[in-house]
Amino acid sequence: MKPADEDRIAANLAKIMAMICIRNSRLEDLHAGTVPTTRTGDYSDVLVIDAEGREIPWLEAAHIDDAQMASLMRDIVNRLFTFHMKSDDPGFREDLDRWMAVAGKWDDPVLDQAFLDAVASLKSSPNN
């Protein structure tokens, strides 16, 4: 297989997995709601006022709690697992082809050097 074909297949796989396994997950629940207005464009002018009256700058506020994060990660892991387990199923592949019409319009992915560096850093971690 030509490198360009490998790149195209990997890009399409990344896009469809992102759409099916991550975008259409509990992440949508976290994305729902009212987006605050910012005049600066970077949200440095937005404050969250909690139940104790504390004013927390938007950029310093946690936007999801531990339980929501755990639920989101369980949902994504289950979806990724299901995706891999069903990837040879012809009916599932037909469904993915229909979703690819939407995901195919997304920007093509690029290698994430920060991700690669973070993964490589685990090799030198004393806990390995």
Descriptive terms for the model:
two-stranded antiparallel sheet, mainly alpha, 128 residues, 55% helix
Give a concise summary.
Keywords: Plasmid. The protein has five helices and two strands.
Shape: extended
Q: Which class do the helix and strand fractions yield?
A: mainly alpha
Strand content: under 5%
Widest sheet, order of strands: 1-2
Q: What is the H/E order?
A: HHEEHHH
Low-confidence stretches: none
Rg from Cα: 19 Å
The count of helical stretches stands at 5
Q: Let me know the number of strands.
A: 2
Largest sheet: 2 strands, antiparallel
In percent, how helical is the residue content? 40-55%
Termini separation (Å)?
A: 36 Å
Mean pLDDT: 92
Map the helices and strands:
Blueprint: H1 3-23, H2 27-31, E1 47-49, E2 55-57, H3 66-86, H4 90-103, H5 113-121
Helix pairs in contact: 1-3, 1-4
Keywords: Plasmid
